[in-house]
Write a structure and sequence with these properties.
This protein is an alpha/beta fold and about 210 residues long. It has a single domain (about 5-205), classed as Alpha-Beta Barrel (TIM Barrel), CATH 3.20.20. It has helices at about 5-10, 65-75, 95-100, 155-160, 180-190, 200-205; strands at about 15-25, 35-40, 60-65, 80-85, 105-110, 120-125, 145-150, 170-175, 195-200. The chain has a 9-stranded mixed beta sheet with strand order 3-1-2-4-5-6-7-8-9. Helix 5 links the parallel strand 8 and strand 9. The N and C termini lie far apart (about 35 Å).
Amino acid sequence: MTKEEQYIAEGTMLPLIEEFYSLQGEGYNTGKAAYFIRLGGCDIGCSWCDTKFSWDADFHKLTSVDEIVKKAAGYPAKAIVVTGGEPTCYNMHYLCEQLILNGVKTFLETSGVYKLTGEWHWICLSPKKHNPPVKEIYPLASELKVIISEPDDLIWAEENAIKTDSKCKLFLQPEWSVYKTIIYDVVEYIKQNPKWQISLQSHKFMKIP
């Protein structure tokens, strides 16, 4: 094992694509300020993915977690959103530990395909049909956010909802590239099934990161 591989295994270095301070654009925490880190590496391969540049971790520089934490802790909103790619490809224990020690709350965006590591204040589970989540993630999810690109995805959403805890917040999110057509199906479905709420990619409407 090389030193770099050891650092990745320990979770002290991660392939960082980008980091920025913005507003959360989707789901339950929409509109709240947070510091975002996007990690490289994902083998799920969603056809409609809007961050395909994140799939190959080798294209992205390994960055010290201590450096990431120092930057994140310097912003007014003591919240960090870890997204990807698929963050759970990596050992998240050290990152979460250091963030919490610095008074920063941890938020995770995941498809749930890998075993969870780290301590999270909020977990957003966004399951994918072609690569479903591991069963252990469902009772831990704070919110379930299902991307709807065609009407049949609503069936998939219900299949996932029944596996979550009763306190889990349920969201349907129109896939951005077909928003103008699928939005009507989503709205009508929620009207008939009000346990669901809609999640819009508000950051894209606002044209912010």
